[in-house]
Specification:
Elements: E1 11-27, H1 30-39, H2 42-55, H3 66-73, H4 78-85, H5 95-112, E2 127-143, H6 146-153, H7 158-170, H8 178-185, H9 190-197, H10 206-220
Antiparallel strand pairs: 1-2
């Protein structure tokens, strides 16, 4: 990059407020869990695969999904639990495709292990489906070039980073995260957009992710 390019369209930063809402739906068996996974709203699937990131934004281990936890700790189906836990969330660009992978994993397991259908959770240990409710709010921050963009990245809240990296890509079904989309389409820098898109945001804290994105961008900026 020889010079600081002005964007065709500025990047307008947004943030989000999050609420968790009980749906009243619950499962006592793997069969019931499977059927509800197929039927519940995408916001439920999102909640149970991203709850850890939403509620514990400063912790960095690979986020567990709630389905794997319940299957392992409540039903004692360790093999299935491992298979569910090993689903690489970052590979799925839509909640729909992630839902299908979770459902097919359980279906395949039940076909090979029919006795697993007979296990019931004890009273009070059922799987309760919860949905994630988000309110997207615009901020006053607007960037017209990479220098302004990184300056704003240093001071926005982690809720804003979460929205642009995770929520916009999965729940709004964009082809990539908002940062990469803007850098490629408004600045024309496909390499930088790809470098950011290839980061695995699920294996670091949001603060570490902030620092990494800034470092990657600054390497491409003129000295």
């Amino acid at each position: 990059m020889a010079e600081l390019i002005k964007a065709k369209e500025p990047f307008r930063f947004s943030t989000r407020l999050h609420l968790s809402e009980l749906t009243g739906l619950r499962a006592s068996t793997l069969g019931q869990l499977l059927e509800l996974i197929k039927e519940v709203s995408g916001s439920c699937i999102y909640h149970h695969t991203h709850r850890y990131l939403q509620q514990h934004q400063y912790l960095s281990p690979e986020p567990p999904n709630d389905f794997a936890y319940w299957v392992t700790d409540i039903l004692g189906e360790d093999e299935l639990g491992e298979k569910l836990a090993s689903i690489d969330t970052v590979q799925y660009s839509t909640i729909r495709s992630l839902r299908e992978k979770i459902a097919s994993t359980i279906e395949s397991y039940l076909q090979d292990n029919p006795l697993a259908k007979l296990k019931f959770a004890h009273s009070g240990e059922e799987f309760h489906f919860i949905k994630s409710v988000s309110f997207i709010l615009p901020t006053n921050y607007v960037a017209y070039d990479l220098k302004e963009f990184t300056d704003i990245l240093r001071k926005i809240t982690i809720d804003a980073i979460y929205f642009h990296i995770f929520e916009a890509r999965l729940r709004i079904e964009k082809p990539t995260n908002d940062f990469s989309y803007w850098i490629e389409n408004s600045l024309g820098d496909k390499k930088l957009a790809g470098d950011i898109a290839r980061l695995d945001p699920y294996t670091s804290t949001l603060e570490d992710l902030r620092k990494t994105v800034i470092q990657v961008i600054e390497k491409r900026m003129p000295g």
